[in-house]
Structures are given as structure tokens and as C-alpha cells.
Amino acid sequence: METFSSKDMALKAQKKILSKMATKSMVQMIIDDTSSEILDELYRVSKEYTGNRSEAQKVVKDLIKVVVKIGVLFRHNRFNEEELKLAQNFQKKLRQGAMTAISFHEVDFTFDKTVMSDILTESRDMLLKLVNTHLTTKSHGRINHVFNHYADPELLTQLYNSSGPLKPHLNKICNGLNKLLENGTL
What are the alphabetically sorted keywords of the record? Predict the structure, then answer.
């Protein structure tokens, strides 16, 4: 028997359309200014670290696509009880990561690349488990791409180097994360 569902088709179409529209101008219409500023700084960090503009754009675009698709899944109540619990744990892990990033930034000589990398890796694994049955292999690849990029211990070391060229970006990222934590967004 054929199992056609217009609701499923609409969801797939919406995810596809939104992922195609993951441009900077479109993102600014969907997300708040603080999140947009953080994404801009993450792009700059990636660009300076890799020396490759297109790779930096791809990482941030992958991040945006994943966030949009997960938002669509939430909006359409696609997660079961177990997945919703996992989503809450993922959100807690992100919050922990943000607070850790800020703490490492604010308190000199406390940065530990292993701790930060582990938090990002654990977050990636939780997210992959959450979307396992909902997103395509290509989207799973995007999640891996984003988290593996930002969990790179060498990138993190350069980012937290107090006299390094990435320090101004870290300042802005942490200021943005602080705002998101204070207003309850994160």
C-alpha cells in the first residue's frame, strides 16, 4: 500500500526551500541581531584560521541550514518524547559550552582545548542522535562538518591565544553569548 502524506511532503519541501535560502540576508530576517553577529564572527574566525573564504562560508552556511531544519522539525512537532528529552539535554550542553567559552575567555590561563573540544564533540554526537531519523545523510555530514571544524583543538588554541589575531573575534563572540544567556535565548 502506498503511504503518501501531504504533510510529510510539505515538511520536506519546507526544509528544502529553507535550506536553499540560507543566505546572510535571509538569516538576518529569521534570527536576532545578536545571533547574526555571532555567526558573522564565527565566519571571520573560520576565514582567518583556514585562509579560505569559501570554506568559511560553507561552514557557516552548513550551520545555518542545520539550525533552520531543526527549527522546522520542532515547529512541526516531529520529535517524540525521547527525542525531546535529548533536545533538552542538547540545549543544556550548548548552554554549558557557552558558559565554558565565556569563562575561558574572561579568566586568564584557564583555557583547556580538550575541555572545549570535548563539549563540542559531545554536542555534535547528541545532535546527530536527535536528528538521526529526521534528516538526510547530507545533513548529518553538515553537522559533522560544522562541529568538527569548530572543535578543532588547533583552531581553539589560536582563538584563545591572548595575543593572537583571532582574539577580537573571541571578544565579540563571548559578548554575544553573554547577551544570549542573559536574555534566556540560550
Answer: Immunity, Innate immunity
* Total number of domains constituting the chain: 1
The 10s digit of each residue's pLDDT in 130-186 is: 999 999 999 999 999 999 999 999 999 999 999 999 999 999 999 999 999 999 888
DSSP for 36-99 reads HHHHHHHHHHHHHHHS-HHHHHHHHHHHHHHHHHHHHHHHTT---HHHHHHHHHHHHHHHHHHH
- CB-based burial, 123-147: b 16+ in 10 Å, e otherwise: bbebbeebbeebbeeebeebbebbb
Which CATH number belongs to the domain containing residue 61 in this structure? 1.20.1440.160
Half-sphere exposure of 15 (CA within 13 A, CB side): 22
